[in-house]
Amino acid sequence: MDFASQGLRESATFDRATIHAIQRAAETGIYDIRGWGAKRRVPHFDDLLFLGASMSRYPLEGYRERCGTDVVLGARNAACPLRLDTPVTIAGMSFGALSARAKEALGRGASEAGTSTTTGDGGMTPEERGQSKHLVYQYLPSRYGMNPDDLRAADAIEVVLGQGAKPGGGGMLLGQKITERVAGMRTLPVGIDQRSACRHPDWTGPDDLEIKIRELREITDWEKPVYVKIGATRTYYDVKLAVQAGADVVVLDGMQGGTAATQDVFIEHVGIPTLAAIPQAVQALQELGVHREVQLIVSGGIRGGADLAKALALGADAVAIGTAALIALGDNHPQYDAEYRSLGSAAGYYDDYQDGRDPAGITTQDPELSARLDPVEGGRRLANFIRVMTMEAQTIARACGKAHLTHLEPEDLVALTIEAAAMARVPLAGTDWIPGAVR
Amino acid sequence: MAALTTPTVIDLAHDSVRDLNRALHQAGPGTSWRIEHPDGAHNVAVGLTEDLDVVIGGPVGYYGAGMNQRATVTIHGNAGTGVAENMMSGTVRVRGSASQSAGATAHGGLLVIDGDASARCGISMKGVDIVVGGNVGHMSAFMGQAGRLVVCGDAGDALGDSLYEARIYVKGKVKSLGADCVEKEMRAEHLAELAELLKAAERDDAPADFRRYGSARDLYHFKVDNSAAY
User: Which molecular function GO terms apply here (chain B) (predicted)?
Assistant: First the structure.
């Protein structure tokens, strides 16, 4: 039905999704919990363009001249930094939120592509460790499954202060997914709604964190790089404090970053866009004199090689993908559309990662559903995607005359909107105007 | 139990914490160690993995004996934040008092604090046994998942807030209970396990003088009726 031709007008303030949200809240009496990340439109990498070479810049031959992609993470203090073939890493996602087969697939794909994957709340599984050449072990407020043997078995340690989907919030895993194995790893009763802590239990500020990081280094004999992950909020200050606390790598997760289960109001209304956060982080690193010495990994809405190239041009050393990695494995695939619809969703819209009935078998602990994901095939698909991302970024970098992806720089970028120009601190296209910049 | 051998002495007045931990990580099982002049240093004797006997001859700072596995560590003084945090096994004894977050997230082993323990003692405990000779501060056993916390003195505000399956025994007064924490009946099996814990801690308190607290389990699932508690 063409509502507009009937003279019907949808309210911009009370649109259909808003009306539905009010009705749902009135019926259930509890806030909406879902997965995915922010769905609202915010200034993003789409609002930036590259200035390719022309008379004033000299491009590299697209198919012949070398454009490096390797990256070293965490060499500041660690005896064994991570040496990756591509700056595309896999973000932290838990066993519990994801099936063991999905975690294995992420490890296989990352290893095939020469990059790292990351554990999540709930500890390290043998499937993931076994299939991951480079495995980053998350050290979270809940400390579920936290085992010093796993710390020592990891290739890097990521102290998680927050994530972009919910800065200031702890993890959540609803009872449907707390199976016997998940419960056992987390020392919890089977089937309860698990609430992770939002603050670390044994330190409360940056001065404490400095001691905590030294403890982690002592326990692992100064071999492992220590990352600090923050959700994007007061990024300039948070990055400075993280570096001063001893971080070898800062992981910066913007508000578009995904989650397995969080209140919708949290996802959509807390935190700042990835685009706005990166220049703040880079400024902090530059002022401390450690830009490139302390690496910056950016996540939150990274979808392809263009986003990778733009993040690197703004000053990141690498990116992390989460939602995109799950899509590469098969999440929201059209082949499951009928099943998504039976759950009240559709392919392309499915975000109910919290309820454990994922038709693609990724965000579930149901044995029959999780059996749908072949970890070998899933790993191959993920490796393909990472390779495509990397080649896309190389295509852009060569066009900008760069012999390595990390040679991309803000000078290569312009913005399409005033908002993006102000946030990314690059000129509005066709002008030399950077809103907010002091001339 | 660590074998009794002539202890190797490491003096932190001369050697660094790095030197100390490196030596302890390389030490063979059954060896004894004495650490002189800790003087409140942080991260003393962390990440031990073997059946060592380690005596620390003074106060330690943050995370003393953190993430201990198998070793027996005795601290002859006070301990700073997070003593024996995330301990997996072994025994840590503090002859003085402990600062906040003692035994935080520890999965196993026994932590004995002869004096008082500050706020959040046993926060997110996951199987450790903690015996405190004196009082504990507010929010102790917050989100405690498993294990036993024994308090021979008084407990501060919000004891056992958001408790899972950890069990708490208190001999003295409890200023207030946290959300979902309730007093429970002290049955014979509880008296028996408490007697064992007190014996392991080398205390002569009478189990019958204690009260037991645990989770009401009302917050295990999100319910609109509990919204005031979330």
Answer: oxidoreductase activity
Total number of domains constituting chain B? 1
Instruction: Specify burial of residue A257 (Cβ count, 10 A radius: 0-12, 13-18, 19+).
Output: buried
Residue A223 forms contact with B (CB below 8 Å): no
pLDDT tens column, A48-99 = 999 999 999 999 988 789 999 999 999 999 999 999 999 999 999 999 999 9
Distance CA B186, CA A433 (A): 73
Residue B3 in any domain: the answer is no
- Residue B9, pLDDT above cutoff 90: yes
Establish if A2 belongs to a structural domain: no
Calculate how close chain A gets to B145, using CA atoms only, in Å.
Answer: 6
Interface test with B, best of A143, A185, A190, A202 (most B CBs within 10 A): A202
A189 to B162: CB separation less than 8 angstroms, yes or no: no
Q: Is residue A259 part of a domain?
A: yes
- What is the DSSP annotation of B71-139? -EEEESS-B-TTTTTT--SSEEEESS-B-TTTTTT--SSEEEESS-B-TTTTTT-EEEEEEESS-B-TT
Cβ contact, residue pair B25, A29, below 8 Å: no
Q: Looking at the domain assignment, is residue A105 inside a domain?
A: yes
* B65 falls within a domain: yes
Kindly tell me if the per-residue pLDDT of A288 is higher than 70. Answer: yes
The predicted complex's ipTM stands at 0.96
CB spacing of A187 vs B86 below 8 angstroms: no
The CATH number linked to B144 is: 2.160.20.60
The pLDDT of residue B29: 96
Looking up tokens 């995109």 gives A324
A192 contacts B66? CB cut-off 8 A = no
Q: Mark residue B165 as left, alpha or beta (left: phi above 0; alpha: psi -120 to 50; beta: remaining).
A: alpha
Which residues 102-161 of A are in CB contact (within 8 Å) with B?
142-143, 146-149, 151
In-domain check, residue A432: no
Identify the domain containing residue A166 by its residue range: 35-424
Contacts of B62 in chain A (CB under 8 A): 203, 208, 211-212, 215
